[in-house]
Amino acid sequence: MSKETESKFSRQELDGRVEPDKVSEWYNRIIKEAGLVDQGPARGTIVLRPYGFALWKQVQKVLGLAIEGSGVQDVYFPAIIPEELLTREKEHMEGFVPQFFRVHDKNRVIGVLRPTSEAVMYPLFKKWVQSHRDLPLKVNQWCNVFRDELRPYAFMRTLEFLWQEGHCVYASAKENEEGVMNFLKMYESFFNNTLALAPILGKKSEKEKFPGAIYTTTGEALLPGGKALQVCTSHNLGTNFSQTYEIQFLGRDGKQQYPYQTSWGLSWRVIGAMLITHGDKKGLILPPEMAPVQIVIIPIKGTSDEEVIRRAKSIKDTLSDLGLRVEIDQTEERPGARYYYHEFRGVPLRIEIGARDIQNNQVITANRLTSEKSPLPLANIKEGVQNILTSIQKSLLEKARNFTQENTHDVESWEEFKKLINSKQPGFLRTYHCGERACEQQIQNETKATLRCIPFGYEKSEGVCIKCGKPSGYEQKLLFAKAY
Amino acid sequence: MSKETESKFSRQELDGRVEPDKVSEWYNRIIKEAGLVDQGPARGTIVLRPYGFALWKQVQKVLGLAIEGSGVQDVYFPAIIPEELLTREKEHMEGFVPQFFRVHDKNRVIGVLRPTSEAVMYPLFKKWVQSHRDLPLKVNQWCNVFRDELRPYAFMRTLEFLWQEGHCVYASAKENEEGVMNFLKMYESFFNNTLALAPILGKKSEKEKFPGAIYTTTGEALLPGGKALQVCTSHNLGTNFSQTYEIQFLGRDGKQQYPYQTSWGLSWRVIGAMLITHGDKKGLILPPEMAPVQIVIIPIKGTSDEEVIRRAKSIKDTLSDLGLRVEIDQTEERPGARYYYHEFRGVPLRIEIGARDIQNNQVITANRLTSEKSPLPLANIKEGVQNILTSIQKSLLEKARNFTQENTHDVESWEEFKKLINSKQPGFLRTYHCGERACEQQIQNETKATLRCIPFGYEKSEGVCIKCGKPSGYEQKLLFAKAY
Question: Which residue of B has its CA nearest to A32?
Fold first, then answer.
């Protein structure tokens, strides 16, 4: 276990956290019981119910603003792609052909459902990009994509999923490289500030990169149970695709040239990562920045019902005016049942108000993360509520970061590697690799572990490959893990 | 021509309006040249470029708020539907089978691409609806749907299109009927207030109703060229689908019963209707409520460039603070070229500012609809600009309404019917019909005209069928037209 950071949450985690080997079972149960998703009628598909879709809407809203702020414009391209376009880029084709779905009309195949949209976008980019004045071209679309999956898993791997895919075209290699990193960093801010997740950023190996890319950058989140999930990618396509799809522009120098391209994407998978990371035995814990309901007010009925309701509504108005998402639960159930319901659904903050609280000019706040209950004077309600939400948001990120650090293990020998990867909560295994594809495949065959990424920001160091003992191929350590 | 209303726009229309027989050509050219759409690589598909997609985003934003305000929650259901679900409702199947696309994985057919989502949603509704306490269930989704089309036409008819589809389940027939009409009225407000369109609301005939519905209500817009387009629908499904998909609930009376259902939808087709209705020979005219850019500011360079730019930016800030969408065009082109460009793209209001205007503490406004140019004192800029935008929005609706009225013709004989329907701009033919499907089909076979709707709000009247002479089957007149 990495000793870099001592977590101040260890006690709590031991109390509330779901046991590593129960995480999958917990996740599958809770996403259904909390009314987020249901199974779709066709193989490997899911239905997002209102509470689940509200999470995706929030992703679209927050990330959408960041995308717009980067000067990228939204577009929509067709879901059906003529097959010859998709197979034109050889590597790209080999990566995706096994996952194709073909679309037939009454008489014949009319195309393939998009597994990603490079192949349908770039023939149009060829038309739109003629001169250096048309560059950079920066577009994005929010859409459904389709890839066959042998082991479907709600949000994480489904035959159809929702995502956004950004596609940029630049005149120079330098701008393009900057673009790749800027969009990756945009994702990182979104993970840190909104989803309260702390994925490790780095490059993919040649074996794991996007088919057709020069290189792929990725965010790898370590989830409870100690397995990794790729939560975003930003690819440097170089001129590979512009050459294949014959995109050329007239440069300032008067010469025809191939532009450089990036594509970058993030899917509803991030919702799965968020749910599984923050939840505990009592149910979901939603980061306040994501929660469809941030605050639920529970009027406790007493001798002065009307006054309690009136006060609850006034608090709701006060907090809504701050831009907070507030609900009053006026159902007839006893308070305990209502507490349980909203805790289970992950509402970050509960406010209880009864006749006695009115007398005392206060409410009772209950923090979903810490389970702390404490009185809050009405006079301080705005500040008090915002402080609690801010502290939950911050603590969730800190917990996620600590969990990743505590479960990142430096391994020195192949024996240790195998022992750890087969343990209950394997985590990230930090070590050296020779850089050869066959050796990487061998590790995967023997242990199911894949090379998740070559992290950015690691110091330069030399060592020998954990598997074959040849000299390291990367000038630094890198991370292996089992995939979700 | 109907004499009910004399249009005050007649002169202008004759000046700027595209000739009836040139409308299609004009439309096909302008949507490409204005950078709204491009042809997709697969048959019958289109690409929405940033300026075109911005229009759909605005539809989603404005209509989305109205949908949310009706207590409807957004969800997402899979695009792939097992075929046996889609063919379970017999009439529904017969309506859609010819337009199916089948999806194949490597080995077999895994389903059909949704032409609409009743068949994939209702098996889940069966799970979710158990008791009267689960009702009403009101959900909506924004998604892509797929229907084969013999004559694709940008926005109007494409193999894949974007839409929203709402689906509600109610305990009683009465609530359900109210739901059908409320959502139709929600659409009407959206057409009138946002798109500046004035579709005629009414019921579809048995022949033209949604496959499987008890009845279908519709909005029928009359477009330049005198053809009609169905721009929205709201269906009363009664218990037809709940019986087929075995949705049952335990009523207050303790008995199991079938709930009543509605579905209602509006697609990107409304963008086509809006563009074709308002444009003129100079290009697009976008209603201010829809325009991605409502105001373009053109700094006219003079002796005091910097001051002009500074002033333009300050005006932009002032207007942006009002929530208006403003752009400054600082390109190097001569003013005339910039005027032409933004006029062509339909920007409702242009503001010109030069050195002399600064001296006079004014700007020059140019109204895209009336072509009027006039000075506006800087002191009145907020009010002045808002007045112009409001008047354009209002005038466009009035024009659309007048066009519909002027092109609605009462016809008394089959000869007159045939003559009008074959004229350059046929319009709505208002007459009686016997109500028999075979006769309706006969009219369609002979003239290509279809029964667009039995309008709401027409007075009761009796007459004989325009085609066969039998007594009227509807107790009122109704509208025939050629379809777009």
Answer: B128
Residue with tokens 């997002």: A48
Place of tokens 């199991």: B256
Residue partners of B37: CB distance under 8 A and separation at least 6: B31, B46, B47, B48, B49, B52, B154, B155
A40·B106 Cβ contact <8 A: no
CB spacing of B162 vs A43 below 8 angstroms: no
- B75 CA: distance to closest CA in chain A (Å): 5
For all residues of chain A together, what is the average pLDDT?
93
Domain boundary among B278, B306, B341: B278
Question: How close A104 gets to chain B, by Cα (Å)?
Answer: 5
SS3 B120: helix
Query: Using an 8 Å Cβ cutoff, are B128 and B104 in contact?
Result: no
Residues of chain A neighbouring B82 (CB-CB closer than 8 A): 41-42
Residue A401 maps to a domain: no
Judged by CB atoms closer than 8 Å, whether chains meet at B80 and A42 is answered as yes
Are residues A141 and A230 located together in one domain of the fold?
yes
**Rounded-to-integer distance, Cα A70 and Cα B37, Å:** 23
Residue B262: name the closest of B207, B315, B313, B215 by CA.
Answer: B215
The string of pLDDT tens digits covering residues A308-354 is 999 999 999 999 999 999 999 988 888 899 999 999 999 999 999 99
- Average pLDDT (B361-380) is 97
A336 located within any domain: yes
Which CATH number goes with the domain that contains B456? 3.30.110.30
Give me the interface pTM, i.e. the ipTM.
0.93
How much is the pTM?
A: 0.94
pLDDT at A397 over 50: yes
Last residue of a domain, one of B389, B423, B448: B389
Q: Which of A50, A110, A113 sits opposite B43 (nearest CB)?
A: A110
Q: Is pLDDT of B376 > 60?
A: yes
What separation in angstroms does the CA of B327 have from each of B311, B330, B339?
A: 13, 9, 13
Q: Tell me: the pLDDT tens digits for B276-327?
A: 999 999 999 999 999 999 999 999 976 668 889 999 999 999 999 999 999 9
The reply to whether A357 and A244 lie within a common domain is no
If asked whether residues B164 and B254 sit together in one domain, one would say: yes
Identify how many contiguous H helices and E strands chain B contains and give both numbers.
15, 23
Pick from B80, B113, B162: CB nearest A76:
B162
- The whole-number pLDDT of residue A302 equals 66
Say which of B56, B113, B127 has its CB closest to residue A103. Answer: B113
Q: How many domains does chain B have?
A: 3
- At B340 the pLDDT is 94
Summarize the confidence of residues B114-141 as an average pLDDT: 96
Question: Which of A43, A86, A103 is most worth mutating to test chain B (most B CB atoms within 10 A of its CB)?
Answer: A103
Domain holding A371, by residue range, is 295-388
Residue A101 to residue B101, Cβ atoms within 8 A: no
d(CA B208, CA B440): 10
Q: What is the pLDDT of residue A86?
A: 82
Residue B117 reports pLDDT greater than 70? yes
Number of H helices and number of E strands within chain A?
15, 23
**Chain B partners within 8 Å of A98 (Cβ):** 106
> CA of A285, closest CA in chain B: separation in Å?
21
Please report whether residue B121 resides in a domain.
yes
Residue B107 pLDDT exceeds 90:
no
Q: Cα distance from A308 to chain B (closest Cα, Å)?
A: 25
Per-residue pLDDT reduced to its tens digit, A101-112: 889 888 888 899
Query: Are residues B417 and B380 located together in one domain of the fold?
Result: no
Q: Which residues contact B179 (CB under 8 A, 6 or more apart)?
A: B136, B168, B170, B262
Per-residue pLDDT band for A115 (boundaries 50, 70, 90) equals very high
- Read off the DSSP letter of residue B403: H
In a domain, A289, yes or no: no
User: Are B71 and B146 within one domain?
Assistant: yes
